[in-house]
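S., here's the first fold you wanted:
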Amino acid sequence: MAVTIMNMMTSSVAAFEKGALRNRVQRCVQSGMRRFWHEEDGQSLVEYGLLISLVALVAVVAVTVFGKGVKNNLYGNANSAISNLPTS
């Protein structure tokens, strides 16, 4: 068994030195890179992430801009309604 493994390793090294294995590895890496480049699953995930961050940014800006006015208006109406309640 050890002899066959050594023979396989020796033949693999010889093939690599000749360039056959190197060419196979290079083609495999190139095809993987092409698939990665043309795959659209990751792109849609990034688009959803950008959309969610845009919605969150709009929400933060809206609360910052309109927050004090809404707070004063709501609490002002609530305070005046509570102060106008009849006391017995």
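And the second, which I think is the more interesting of the pair:
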Amino acid sequence: MLATEGIIEKNIRDNSIGNTCFERKYMENINEKLIGKTVLNAKGNIIGRIQESIKDSVSGEIISVLITPSKELNLKKYIVTEHGEIVFPFSSLSSVKDIFIIEEPAQ
């Protein structure tokens, strides 16, 4: 299943119309903390590492993350880009220190 991009942009550093300087800095700070972090599922299995974030082109809010999957991961139940990255909603992430736990889709 390929992810569609629609109204979203993969460029987190885009200066979207309507965002204040404070909001842009806040979102960039969150993005910097996300990139490279390990993502686990609720069972403790490694999903992969966060490659980049996807934000709404109007509001600038992070709506999804792209994850480089671990080599052992079966990708059949995930939404995957044409480049092999897994797409997860940002709202499904929970942070625990330097790792993130992700709420996986139901099978």
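Why I say that: The chain has one domain: 8-102. The CA atoms of residues 75 and 86 lie 8 Å apart.

Talk tomorrow,
H.
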